[in-house]
Each structure stands twice: as C-alpha cells, then as structure tokens.
Amino acid sequence: MIEARELRKSFGTRTAVDGMSFDIRQGETLGLLGPNGAGKTTTIHMLTGLLRPDSGEIIIDGVADPMRTSVRRRIGLTPQTLAIYEDMTAEENLVFLGRLYGIPKPILRKRVGELLDIAGLADRKRDVAKNFSGGMKRRLNLVASLVHQPDILFLDEPTVGVDPQSRNHLFDCVSNLASTGTTIIYTTHYMEEAERLCDRVAVVDQGTIRAIDTVVELKRKHGGDATILVEVERDSAQRKRVTELLQGIFPDRTIRIEDQHLKLQSANPIRDLAKLADSEMDPKWIELERPQLEDVFLNLTGRRLRDS
Ligand SMILES: Nc1ncnc2c1ncn2[C@@H]1O[C@H](COP(=O)(O)OP(=O)(O)OP(=O)(O)O)[C@@H](O)[C@H]1O
Ligand SMILES: [Mg+2]
Asked: Model pTM?
C-alpha cells in the first residue's frame, strides 16, 4: 500500500534519514521503534507530504506522490508536537477541522460526538483545551487527526507525557482503529508499545532501518540466546552442590553466577530444560528468560534504547 524506497533527508550537514526502504501493507500496524533523533518524525513527515525527501521515492497505492490531494485526504497525522488550538474548546477544535475538510454539518455534528466519546472527553467538550491535563490534550490531538476518517493514520509518539490510564485509553483507541482496517504507522521509543500494538516493527537508528519484522521474528533472529536461571541460596552448600550438578549436566558450557542465580545461555532452551527435568535439579529453582525487544535493539545497534 505504501512503499518507501531509499528515502534520504538531511538538514544542513546533519543526515536525519539515510536511505530507508520499507513497505507498509494495507490494514497493518507498523511500528517505527528508535531513540531520540533516530529519524522517525522526519520519515513520517516525508510520508505525509510535509517534507520533500532529498532523494528516494514514496509510492502510495501505486502512485508516486504523497502530496496529491486525493492521497492527503486519506491520511491522518497525530503529530508529536500537539496540534490543537488551546483557546478553543474540545468540541470547537474538532468542528473547526471538520469545516476545513468541508464535511456537511449534520454528519460533522454526529462525528464530533463520536470522536469526543472515543477520546473520553464528552463531558469536557465545552472546556477550552488549555485547561486540559497532558493526557487529555494528547487524546484530543489523536481524535483531531480522525475527523476526516482517514484510512491511513500516522501516530508520532502519541503517548509522550501521558499517565498509564490515559495511555491504556490511547492503546484501546489505536487497537479499535486497527481492527476496523485502518493502516497505522506508529512511532515510539517505548518497546512495550511497539510490542503491544504493532504487527511489525522497524528498528530505526541513526536514520536507517536495522531490521523490520514481527516482534516474534525480531527476537528469534536478533534477540540472541535464551537464558536458563537456576535459583541458588547465597553462600551455602546448596549453591556449591547445584553449581556442580549443573556443570555436570552441561560440561562444555559457561555458567555465570549472579547473586542468587546461576545463569546459562541456551540456544535450544526446550532441549536444555528437558535435560534439567531428567536431572536431580529441583524444578522450582528453574526459570527461563527469553530475549526481549531490548536485547534485539542492543544486538542491532550496540546501544540500549532506554539510555540513548
Ligand atoms: N527541521 C530540522 N532542522 C534541523 N535538524 C533537524 C530538523 N528536524 C530534524 N532534525 C535532525 O534530524 C535528526 C532526526 O530527527 P527526528 O526528529 O526525525 O528524530 P526522531 O526519531 O523523531 O526523534 P525523537 O524521538 O526525539 O522525536 C535529529 O538529529 C534532528 O536534530
Ligand atoms: Mg520525533
């Protein structure tokens, strides 16, 4: 549905996007996961026609021009910086946008009511936006991009500065839109959001896509080994005995000792756990840690997403 081919964009000497290519399928939710400055917003601005790429191509439904009016009307953008009028009420914000799109009054009235419900702002619709909490503003910012019922929606870090309750509310909105067939491009630097909402995730760093796949496949291909943890007591005979037992079962493996755990890397945890099940090891000591998206990011970029 959307194809990006070798997109590049620099600002002066700073390269923001350095040759990104990817496809977005109709109805899918694609996440762009990357740290501050990775080039996510620049990419979204190129895809929505707000910025012209220095080079490369964007093809939407077979046509190479996202600036076309017919395409722009199908696109909604929830920008990272709030795009609501603080001096207008919630309702006025939505009605104003609807008029810009030329939506007839009776249809618009009904739609604005629905959007206020989606945003959980129906009882605050006559309050000016500047009196809203950060989360309420974000929710209004989201539904403001839905007034013209776009079938392609770009969400640029929609949950920044939002408390957990509002965040869950936003997640539900996004999931509902996805279930009704909206194609969604969602940027975030929160791994749990990418994991929870996205069909596929592009790991973005320094203007490039390091990998793009489902979270399950990203973990399988780039997450590294699983870790088997065996709980041991500190400074005890039990600890010594269990360490010897474990080394006996896996003679050629390195066993790391950390606090109350023995740790063993495992490329085939099911087989290794089966071996442990057949041993004298008490099953209640044993836990399995699967690779997380954090590990994927670290392996692909050499950096941790949280610290970057
Ligand atoms: N208008 C601009 N002028 C100059 N530099 C810019 C401009 N917009 C972005 N950049 C630079 O391009 C790089 C990518 O920025 P971009 O905003 O696309 O990143 P991002 O992934 O959206 O980051 P964040 O998570 O902080 O929103 C950064 O180094 C940024 O400073
Ligand atoms: Mg950004």
From this structure: 0.88
